Amino acid sequence: MVKKKRRSMLYIPGNNPAMIQQAGVYGCDAVLLDLEDAVALNQKDAARILVRNMLKTVNFYDTEVCVRVNNFHTPFGLTDLEEIVPLQPDNIRFPKTETVADVKEFMKEVRRIEKEHGIKNPTMTIHVMIETAKGVANVYDIAAADPRIDAITIGGQDLTADMGIIKTPDGVGIDYARKRIVMAGKANDLDVLDTIFADVNDDEGLREETEYIKKIGFAGKALINPRQVDVVHDVFNPTENEVRKAYRVYSEFIKNKKAGIGVFAIDGKMVDAPVVQRAITVLEYAKIDLKEIEKNAG
Ligand SMILES: CC(C)(COP(=O)(O)OP(=O)(O)OC[C@H]1O[C@@H](n2cnc3c(N)ncnc32)[C@H](O)[C@@H]1OP(=O)(O)O)[C@@H](O)C(=O)NCCC(=O)NCCSC(=O)C[C@@](O)(CC(=O)O)C(=O)O
Ligand SMILES: [Mg+2]
């Protein structure tokens, strides 16, 4: 089985039936059906009902489906959970997480609702969003707060607002937070996902930002418009040359392992465990099944 990547997660406002209906055909890896900031206060109930009904009826094909609920410090958070948890979307995204206590309170309700609905082996995972200075300060503990958390993400719009700064195209104001969140996520084996890029007409800016966040360790990015999907995939997809090299490294690794050799050279360059691990990551993004390489390596 090839591990599924989340290069692109497209936000869709939860009160827009036409957009949700199309969710499975945009070509993104995941959709984020939003009950939070994309939805006006007087639309919250309508959005919740719509998303609940769409989860029951829409064919999302192989697109991962995540629902972003409202925070518990709003009048909507608990009702969102009561309606959405029983339907077990692939994941629930918990915004503006600031403390371990927030996660514990949230997960207590999730587990209570699952129990009440007789859901014995829940598959739904949790994405925590870090969007305030307090959340950034506590991120190492938050990332480790519950085993069902499988991704952590930064909300750059809210974070800059909380910090009282302008969000500039070079991202300098959120750079420390991005890197701290990456380390907290990696330390707990989580997917680390980046914030949105707000200018849907600036492909070059989107490309530059995506190249940067890929370099510092993010696994993918949230998007707000289907026109952003191709640029982000193009950045995250390895080049043909990278795939060829990774294939060769992994294949040689399997052959050497069988001969009891842990470190070897390809074209004069040392290959050891970290080099193999990086090759595996490239092959995962290229959706190449490692089992096939293992078989071919004899
Ligand atoms: C930005 C814009 C208004 C531009 O409108 P435009 O009209 O110029 O778009 P066009 O390109 O002309 O649309 C062409 C065709 O695509 C369709 N289409 C457009 N967008 C689509 C879409 N998202 N999903 C499906 N379909 C879509 C459209 O319906 C049309 O279809 P059709 O008529 O059939 O041709 C529009 O995209 C939009 O509303 N985006 C979603 C915004 C949103 O969700 N915000 C909340 C999440 S962020 C946040 O909360 C901050 C955060 O929390 C986040 C974090 O970082 O994680 C933090 O703190 O940072
Ligand atoms: Mg936000």
UniProtKB/TrEMBL annotation:
Keywords: Magnesium, Metal-binding. Transmembrane segments: none annotated. InterPro entries: Aldolase/citrate-lyase_domain, Citrate_lyase_beta/mcl1/mcl2, Pyrv/PenolPyrv_kinase-like_dom, Pyrv_kinase-like_dom_sf. Residues 7-226 form the HpcH/HpaI aldolase/citrate lyase domain. The keyword Magnesium applies. Gene3D superfamilies: Phosphoenolpyruvate-binding domains. Signal peptide: none annotated. SUPFAM superfamilies: Phosphoenolpyruvate/pyruvate domain (SSF51621). It comes from Labilibaculum manganireducens. PROSITE patterns: PROKAR_LIPOPROTEIN. GO terms for biological process: oxaloacetate metabolic process. GO terms for molecular function: catalytic activity; magnesium ion binding. Its cofactor is Mg(2+). Mg(2+) binds at residues 131, 158. Substrate binds at residues 68, 131. It comes from the Bacteria. Pfam families: HpcH_HpaI. This is HpcH/HpaI aldolase/citrate lyase domain-containing protein.
